[in-house]
Amino acid sequence: MIKHSTLLALAAGLALSPALAEDSFPVTIEHALGTTTIEAKPQRVVTWGWSAQDVVIDLGLAPVGMPFYTYGGGEDGVLPWTEEAIAANGMTMPVVLPNAGQLPIEAIAALQPDLILAPYSGLSEEEYAVLSNVAPVVAYPEKPWFISWQDVVRLTGQALGESDKADALIAETQAWLAEETAPYPEMQGLIFANFVNRNDGQVSVRSAGDPRVELFGDLGMVPAGKPDLADGEADSYYYLLSYENFDRIPAEVLISFFDNEDAANAFFGMDLIQLSPLVQKGAYTRLVGEDLTMAVSGAITPLSLRWGFPMVAEELGRAVEAAVAE
Questions:
Q1: Do 289 and 304 lie in a common domain?
Q2: Residue ranges of the alpha helices (H) in the chain?
Q3: Is 286 found in the same domain as 234?
Q4: At what angle do helices 149-160 and 302-324 cross, to 10 degrees?
Q5: DSSP of 123-183, one letter per residue?
Q6: pLDDT confidence bin for 8, thresholds 50/70/90
Q7: How far apart (Å, rounded) are the C-alpha atoms in residues 7 and 81?
Q8: What are the tens digits of pLDDT across the range 217-257?
Q9: Closest CA relative to residue 206, chosen from 299, 297, 317
Q10: Which of 178, 198, 230 is the last residue of a domain?
Q11: Is the pLDDT of residue 122 over 90?
Q12: What's the gap between Cα 220 and its chain centre?
C-alpha cells in the first residue's frame, strides 16, 4: 500500500516543477451531451461518476462534493487513495453524495457548485439538462463510461484552467509507470487478456479499447483478440466465454481481479479452469480486493495508480516471467 509520504512526494513534485501557466477564461468544452462554457476559474466543483475527484485534488483543489463509492470505498464511500490525498494536502473532506438510484440533484444543488464534472460517468441527456440549470456541466467526450484516465486528466485540467499542470501530471505518471515495469522487459509485446469471473459459468473478457484494458496496452502489452466461440457484440466493452472454453482465450498471460481471496481460490480451483495451459504454468495474476480492483481496473487516476499499481506490477511481473519461461 502506498503511504501518505508517496502521495506527498507526488504533490511536491508538481509543486516544485517550473511554474505552469493557467488557462484564460472563459473556457468552452465540447462533449457528447453538448457544449459547455465555463466563465471563470471554478472554485466549488462537484464531481460525478468515477475518477474526477482525484484529478481535481491532484490539480490543487478540493471538490465540495463527490459520489459515494459503493465498490471499493468502504463504509464512508471514499476510496482509500482519495482519502489519503485529501489528508496529505490538508484539504476539507468533500460532501459524499448518495450514489444509489436517482441522481441526487437537490443535494448537488445545495452545494452551490460553479462546475459539475462528470467526464467518466453514465450521465443521461435528461440528467445533463437538469444539472445544467444548477451549474455548467462537463460530461464524457463520446460514450458513457468510456474514457481513458489520461483524457479524464486532460478534460479536468481544461475545465479548471490547469491544462499545463494536467499535461505535466500525465507525463509524470506515465514516466513513473515505465519505471515500475522496467524490471520486466518481457512484458513488451506480450498478448494479454483481462477478465473477471461472472460466477454464472462464464467469464467476462474485456475488449481492446476498454479504458481498463488500455492501461495494460500503454505498458507495451497487446490485448488478445476475441475467439470465434465467444458471445458478445463486435463493439462491446467485453465478450463472454464459458468456463468450458476458458482455455481457448488467445493470450499469453491472463490478468484477473477478485473481490477477495476466497473468490480467487474458488475460481482457480475449478477443474475446468485448471485445464488452461496458462493457469497450469502460472501465467496469470490473481489481484485481490475491491479497492485494488478500482485503483487499476476501474476508477483509474494518477492517485489510484500510485496507490495500487506497485502491487499489480509485482504480481504481473511474476505472471509474465511464468509466461515466457521455457
A1: yes
A2: 4-16, 52-58, 80-88, 105-110, 125-131, 149-160, 163-181, 211-218, 261-268, 271-274, 277-281, 290-297, 302-324
A3: yes
A4: 160
A5: --HHHHHHHTTTS-EE--SSBTTB--HHHHHHHHHHHHT-HHHHHHHHHHHHHHHHHHHTT
A6: very low
A7: 8
A8: 999 999 998 887 666 555 567 889 999 999 999 999 999 99
A9: 297
A10: 178
A11: yes
A12: 18
Contacts (Cβ under 8 Å, ≥6 apart) of 129? none
108: domain CATH number is: 3.40.50.1980
Partnered with residue 146 across adjacent β-strands are 143
- 14-18, long-range: CB < 8 A, 24+ apart: 14/58, 14/165, 14/168, 14/169, 14/172, 17/168
C-alpha cell at 239: 465478450
Among 178, 201, 234, identify where a domain stops: 178
The Cα–Cα gap between 209 and 204 comes to: 15
Residue with cell 502460472: 282
Asked if the model's pLDDT at residue 62 lies above 80, the reply is yes
Tally of structural domains, the chain: 2
CA dihedral sign of residues 246, 250, 251, 257:
negative
Asked if residue 70 and residue 122 are part of one domain, the reply reads yes
Residue 79 Ramachandran class (φ > 0 left, ψ -120 to 50 alpha, else beta): beta
Check whether residue 52 and residue 131 sit in a common domain: yes
Lookup result for grid cell 462534493: 65
Pairwise CA distance, residues 118 & 128, whole Å? 10
| CA dist., res. 80 & res. 66, Å (int) | 14
CA distance from start to end of the chain: 33
Is 137 found in the same domain as 228? no
Check whether 5 has a pLDDT greater than 50.
Answer: no
Contact, 127 vs 28, CB < 8 A? Answer: no
Domain match, 127 and 250 both: no
State which residues form the domain around 60. Answer: 4-178
Residue 149 CB contacts under 8 Å (≥ 6 apart), including other chains = 51, 211, 215, 300, 301, 302, 305
CA angle (41 as vertex; 40, 47 as ends), nearest 5:
115
